[in-house]
UniProtKB/TrEMBL annotation, chain A:
The keyword Nucleotide-binding applies. PANTHER family: TRNA MODIFICATION GTPASE GTPBP3, TRNA MODIFICATION GTPASE GTPBP3, MITOCHONDRIAL. The keyword Transferase does not apply. It comes from Saccharibacillus kuerlensis. Keywords: Cytoplasm, GTP-binding, Hydrolase, Magnesium, Metal-binding, Nucleotide-binding, Potassium, tRNA processing. PROSITE patterns: G_TRME. It is found in: Cytoplasm. Its EC number is 3.6.-.-. The gene is mnmE. This is tRNA modification GTPase MnmE. Residues 220-379 form the TrmE-type G domain.
UniProtKB/TrEMBL annotation, chain B:
NAD(+) binds at residues 273-287. Residues 544-615 form the tRNA uridine 5-carboxymethylaminomethyl modification enzyme C-terminal subdomain domain. Coiled coil: none annotated. InterPro entries: FAD/NAD-bd_sf, GIDA_C_N, MnmG, MnmG-rel, MnmG-rel_CS, MnmG_C, MnmG_C_subdom, MnmG_C_subdom_sf. It is found in: Cytoplasm. It comes from the Bacteria. NAD-binding protein involved in the addition of a carboxymethylaminomethyl (cmnm) group at the wobble position (U34) of certain tRNAs, forming tRNA-cmnm(5)s(2)U34. This is tRNA uridine 5-carboxymethylaminomethyl modification enzyme MnmG. The keyword Cytoplasm applies. Belongs to the MnmG family. FAD binds at G14, A15, G16, H17, A18, G19, V126, S181, Q370. It comes from Saccharibacillus kuerlensis. The keyword tRNA processing applies.
Length: 458, 628
């Protein structure tokens, strides 16, 4: 029996239809259970049954997806191991999100052809098919290999290489301290390790953030339109999305709390949040509207704050400006046709001039200015998504998460004054995990590093 | 004219550190054993530094001892300084290092060998192997003597076509001006073996009375020395200090001015030297920003004035050696007794060996030590004992013994050699081991003594002591686990150690896991009948304190073992395995790994190739099963 648990997207990647993620191995049931909320817990479910429920991020408790989960327990499955199959709504985005979550558990990404390989090794496929299995592994590996390399070309692989260089220099330093204890190299303090690993950790976290930016480019910049009732949010939405576009409405009983709408401004995709909430305006109970805005605010990559040019700022608006200070935000001075009562100086304390856009939304006046402001924010690198180094490959994200964990362990151990040769275990692990991203885990390079960095010998 | 000089189970050619362990292991396992060497005065000779041990190397000595070898016992009898290194670091890298009295080290080892009942020692130069039906069945000496055996172990060190180089001077020689072995090297090529040319070197030896030690720093041994052998319980050896000094800018100037006379740079040396043991001229050139280099002055023995100048390995000409020595603090008036030199020699490409150290080309022939491309006494001895064990097992018709990478540094060393090969003289480093935390100095007996006992190298008496230690350590850990304590039983102790006090009940095991708490702090909190000696207490403490890290590595090892258990047939024809990449086919065909695990460590063999091999293997086994 092969002992680890693997997962892969088993359907062709693309939009539409449904997508199936297959998880196979001894931990399949227990690990998927950590993400799956349903009537009957999976661990108590009978084999060959289908369950309706939700994929929930165990850390943030966020409901990600409505899914059907099929359970096939060993040995009556394709691989003869426990298999859990998750059927999700199609679309790359949702399936990838689920994969990312799975790979944060004790599950690794399946190698090319691995389900079939397991099926064969466990006696599920007969001998006559062995060559087919071999061809499958070969062709899939070759393809995966070339794709993998395309993905790490350029900037990402350069950055990973830099991080690995820092780690390997640190490792070489640790190793020299261990293998040449009497040598006159500076002895390594845990503070030094903390600094080096801390710096790499920060960068790994930054790269992981860009995995969200990768998402931004695919899914759109999550944008919230906020402002007090009647300030013109609804009109702004219509102006941006165009009148002809059908708006998804909040049908009671659907799973989503926040309604999303996609628009494109100068090729920049924006995902507008809580458009339903905006549309409801006066009809809804104030309380719900406030709560909705809060949710939208927290999730947004870009905040469009709409103010009324014809009225003075109220307390809520001042509070809001303070609250979103430091976030990517544009203020819209709406209703320029009214005499100005808005205290523009107050607004300038929070916003630079180019981020203050005068508009008369109702007349369609100033939409071009807003588009220009958004696209300049995007292309001048003020929105982080303008940084085109981003991690999008599920495997890379999983490896970065692992490296982050290892580096965290190393930093913590260093803080607790654990001996350096044990901290080394986690540093080395991080170095190997990052190496897997760029396809380089050669052990010998550490030895090379030691002897090129230090002058040793008798 | 040739004649038959005798029939043996095992013949060992060479009497260096590999040769003595091989010969002793084979003889002690009940094999009628012959050891042939060029010069019987050179048994266990230390041609370079007068020390044994240090990180990784010291671990190997412990492992040799745990298996029932001699190196540990011998150095414990003959050390003139003992020092535990890395004590400020984790227990896995604590490493014992001894300065040896070179002369008594040799003499003591020779005595031990002479007393070994199954062992015949004979001076002679082996020039050829006797091959019958594709198997190695004996050796032929220069004097025409044929010795026959079931297995033969070659441990020729740096003697194969050895050549000493010093400045413009170059002559054929073994180490320390011994006779080189020229014909055997040619003969190995004729038999089809692939040899490479390696180089190593040694520093000058100087006269003690010409050193001004007041200008150097003293480096004493430990007050309470520890020992390499689990059998050694004490020693009355007097310890001698070493001395630390540094090169000066003048030293570097002299070297730079004479680089044109350095064989390393003039092109006279063709062999590949080790990066970890560069000559001083190499260091000065490669690390030109360093203004000084450490020099340790080490006594070569109690009854000699010769001092080894560690850090100054060189092949510069004699006059330059003297001039540069005299620019080192404390050495202004120094006199050289022996020159430093570089030595070139032939070595086997080690991927021609099975993990048993038997050659693939010639069944019955084993090689061990520097001939396999390593350097270092300990590396040689570690291979020596394994080659001796496997040569004996083969002669006795038994299964070979192979240590894997999780069982010992010896396993790491041999696996690296036979799986990856080496393009420079190979030195063990702790960083070569994936499971450093499992391969500790302290637990070599737990790892290997059961094996030593099973193969007959560990006596019943010693095994009983070992089992007792193991049982007591386990019992004590269990006791600590069950020892529930109230806050008032431990809080005073915790307060004293500035450790956070507890408010609920706990157990002693949990408390011992705290970094600031040691075993001695908790051993008497609840009285016990279990009597532990210092070694056992140390074992309890390490096993408890580092359990988290140890378990992490153990989990990795389990995965490794699974792959190691999947055996590949020796005669598998890789060219016929569909789907393997071309590079993998070539590498696998030449190395012929014995397991999937070993195959996965060959550079150029990808995970996809391993998957394909697994499928092929399953296919192969099913066909075999169907045939019955």
């Amino acid at each position: 029996m092969i002992s680890d648990t693997i997962a892969a997207i088993s359907t062709a990647v693309g939009e539409g239809g449904i997508a199936v993620i297959r998880v196979s191995g001894p931990e399949a049931v227990s690990e998927v259970s950590r993400l799956f909320r349903s009537g009957t817990p999976l661990s108590e479910a009978a084999t060959h049954t289908v369950h309706y429920g939700f994929i929930v991020d165990p850390d943030t408790k966020e409901k990600l997806e409505e899914v059907l989960v099929t359970l096939m327990l060993a040995p009556r499955s394709f691989t003869t191991e426990d298999i859990v199959e998750i059927s999700a709504h199609g679309g790359v985005v949702s399936v990838r999100r689920i994969m990312e979550l799975l790979l944060k558990q004790r599950i690794r990404l399946a190698e090319p052809g691995e389900f079939t390989k397991r099926a064969f090794l466990n006696g599920r496929i007969d001998l006559s098919q062995a060559e087919g299995v071999i061809d499958l592994i070969r062709s899939k590996s070759d393809r995966a290999f070339s794709v993998a390399f395309k993905q790490v070309e350029g900037d990402l692989s350069r950055r990973i290489d830099q991080l690995r260089q820092t780690l390997i220099e640190t490792l070489a330093h640790i190793e020299v301290n261990i293998d040449y204890p009497e040598h006159d190299v500076e002895s390594l303090t845990s503070l030094f390790i903390q600094e080096k690993c801390g710096a790499v950790l920060e960068e790994v976290e930054r790269l992981l953030k860009t995995s969200n930016q990768g998402k931004i480019l695919r899914e759109g910049i999550t944008t919230a339109i906020v402002g007090r009732p009647n300030v013109g949010k609804s009109s702004l939405l219509n102006a941006l999305s165009g009148q002809n576009r059908a708006i998804v409405t909040d049908i009671p009983g659907t799973t989503r709390d926040v309604i999303e709408e996609f628009i494109t401004i100068n090729n920049i995709p924006l995902k507008l949040l809580d458009t339903a909430g905006i549309r409801e305006t006066l009809d809804v109970v104030e309380q719900i509207g406030v709560e909705r805005s809060r949710t939208a605010l927290n999730e947004a990559d870009l905040i469009l704050l709409v103010l009324n040019n014809g009225e003075q700022l109220d307390d809520e608006e001042r509070r809001l400006m303070e609250q979103i200070q430091g976030r990517q935000s544009i203020v819209i001075m709406n209703k320029m046709d009214l005499p100005q009562k808005l205290e523009i100086e107050k607004v300038r304390e929070f916003y630079k001039d180019e981020l203050i856009v005068p508009m008369t939304v109702k007349e369609g006046e100033g939409v071009d200015r807003l588009e220009a402001a958004i696209s300049s924010l995007f292309f001048e690198g003020k929105l982080e998504s303008a940084d085109l180094t981003y991690v999008s490959n599920v495997r890379h994200i999983a490896l970065l998460h692992q490296a982050k964990r290892s580096l965290n362990d190393a930093v913590e151990a260093a803080q607790m004054m654990v001996p350096i040769d044990m901290i080394q275990i986690d540093v080395r692990l991080a170095w190997e995990q990052l190496g897997e991203i760029v396809g380089d885990t050669a052990q010998d390079s550490l030895i090379d590093q030691i002897f090129s960095q230090f002058c040793l010998g008798k | 004219m040739t004649y038959t000089g005798g029939e043996f189970d095992v013949i060992v050619v060479g009497a260096g550190h590999a040769g003595v362990e091989s010969a002793l292991a084979a003889a002690r396992m009940g094999c009628k054993t012959l050891m042939v060497t060029i010069n019987l005065d050179m048994v266990a000779f230390m041609p370079c530094n007068p020390s044994i041990g240090g990180p990784a190397k010291g671990h190997v000595v412990r492992e040799i001892d745990a298996l029932g070898g001699e190196m540990g016992r011998n150095i414990d009898k003959t050390f003139i300084q003992m020092r535990m290194l890395n004590t400020g670091k984790g227990p896995a890298v604590h490493a014992l290092r001894a300065q040896a009295d070179k002369f008594s080290y040799q003499q003591t080892m020779k005595e031990t060998m002479e007393k070994e009942p199954n062992l015949t020692m004979r001076q002679g130069m082996v020039e050829e192997l006797i091959v019958e039906d594709g198997k190695c069945v004996g050796v032929l000496t220069k004097t025409g003597t044929r010795y026959m055996a079931k297995s033969i172990v070659l441990t020729t060190g740096t003697y194969l076509r050895g050549k000493i180089i010093m400045g413009e001077l170059m002559y054929e020689s073994g180490p320390n001006n011994q006779q080189p072995s020229v014909r055997l090297s040619e003969h190995l090529r004729e038999l089809g073996f692939n040899l490479v040319r390696f180089k190593t070197g040694t520093p000058p030896r100087v006269h003690k009375d010409t050193i001004d030690f007041s200008k150097t720093e003293i480096q004493p041994g430990d007050d309470k020395p520890k020992f390499f052998s689990y059998e050694t319980k004490g020693s009355s050896n007097e310890q001698l200090p070493c001395w630390l000094t540094y090169t000066s800018p003048e030293t570097h100037q002299i070297i730079n001015d004479n680089l044109h006379r350095a064989p390393m740079f003039s092109g006279l040396i063709e062999g590949t030297g080790p990066r970890y043991c560069p000559s001083i001229e190499d260091k000065v050139v490669r690390f030109s920003d360093k203004s000084k280099h450490q020099i340790f002055l080490e006594p070569e023995g109690k009854n000699t004035a010769e001092y080894y100048v560690q850090g100054l390995s060189t092949s510069l000409p004699e006059d330059v050696q003297l001039r540069m020595l005299r620019t080192i603090a404390g050495m202004e008036k120094v006199e050289i007794m022996r020159n430093g030199y570089a030595i070139e020699y032939d070595a086997m490409v080690p991927t021609q060996l099975w993990p048993t150290l038997e050659t693939k080309l010639l069944p019955g022939l084993f090689t061990a030590g520097q001939i396999n491309g390593t350097s270092g006494y300990e590396e040689a001895a570690g291979q020596g004992i394994m080659a001796g064990i496997n040569a004996a097992r083969k002669a006795q018709g038994r299964e070979p013994v192979v240590l894997d990478r999780s069982q010992g540094y010896i396993g790491v060393l041999i696996d690296d050699l036979v799986t990856k090969g080496t393009n420079e003289p190979y030195r063990l480093l702790t960083s070569r081991a994936e499971y450093r935390l499992l391969l500790r100095h302290d637990n070599a007996d737990l790892r290997l003594t059961p094996i030593g006992h099973e193969i007959g190298l560990i006596s019943e008496e010693r095994y009983t002591v070992f089992l007792d230690k193991k049982a007591k350590v386990e019992a004590e850990i269990e006791r600590l686990r069950k020892a529930k304590v109230h806050p008032d039983q431990v809080n005073p102790m915790l307060q004293r150690l500035e450790s956070a006090v507890i408010s609920n009940g706990s157990d002693l095991l949990t408390i011992l896991r705290r970094p600031e708490v040691t075993y001695s702090d908790i051993e008497n909190i609840i009285p016990t009948d279990i009597q532990l000696d210092e070694e056992m207490k140390e074992q309890v403490e390490i096993q408890v304190k580092y359990a988290g890290y140890i378990e992490k590595q153990q989990a990795h090892v389990e995965r490794l073992k699974k792959m190691e258990r999947k055996k590949l047939p020796e005669d598998l024809v890789y060219d016929e395995v569909r789907g393997l990449a071309m590079e993998a086919k070539q590498k696998l065909s030449s190395i012929r790994p014995l397991s999937i695990g070993q195959a996965s460590r060959i550079s150029g063999v990808t995970p996809a190739d391993i998957s394909i091999l697994l499928v092929y293997l399953e296919q192969f086994n099913r066909v075999a099963a169907a045939r019955g």
